[in-house]
Amino acid sequence: MTTKLLSISADAKTVKGNALGVLTGILYLAPYDISGYQVCPKSTDACRKTCLFTAGRGVYDTVKKARIRKTKWFFEDRNTFMVQLYNDIKFLVRKAKKLKMVPAVRLNGTSDIAWEKFAVTFDGITYPNLMTAFPEASFYEYTKILNRKSALHIPNYHLTFSLSENNDKEALKALAAGMNVAVVVNTKRKAAKPVTFSGFPAIDGDLSDVRFLDAKGNIILLTAKGKARYDKSGFVKSLDYRIG
Known about the structure:
Layout: E1 6-8, H1 12-16, E2 22-27, H2 45-49, H3 61-76, H4 78-99, E3 102-106, E4 120-122, E5 125-127, H5 130-133, E6 138-143, H6 149-152, E7 157-162, H7 168-176, E8 180-185, E9 196-197, E10 200-204, E11 219-223
Parallel strand pairs: 2-3, 3-6, 6-7, 7-8, 8-11, 10-11
Antiparallel strand pairs: 1-2, 4-5, 9-10
């Protein structure tokens, strides 16, 4: 039986993108080194404790085990994994076309892998990465890895930097470079968010997950979810927090 890797419009946030004409597929792996392999090289104590791995369907053991199996597959049999992922994206693109929607792919649902570095070969053609293989799709990620210059030059790949409890300097550099910065804040669910944060224009990131449509130079405000709701480490920010 073939194991599907992409979850297509299967959670509340990506479903919101449907109203914007976007069909989203997300790859959920086991974060940091839960699987025995490190997929979040810049993870911190706080982000490990508050990871979205514990939110939504991630609370179920069967889902956690499936994500661990996928992660081990990526590291232990890279070729077949990439072919399956290619096929899943191909299916997403076809489905989106049929529905007259924009296909979008988030490969780091609960990981922080530099996907621009991984080639894929399909039908005798080798592509430098999945984004190049599917120019008609929009790929997007949240990342704590600032120095991903090659990724920033891929036209259909959008990166949003993630603020943590100890990377304010990197976040300011990301903003200066035109990147957006995601900030988890201690607002109540469905509460209105401010239009500025730390002196920068702000966007309510909970309205949808379609980050590649965001204007540049913005703070993306995200309400704390899962275990992050109880964070006391400084990872979750108050609305009066000043970056840097």
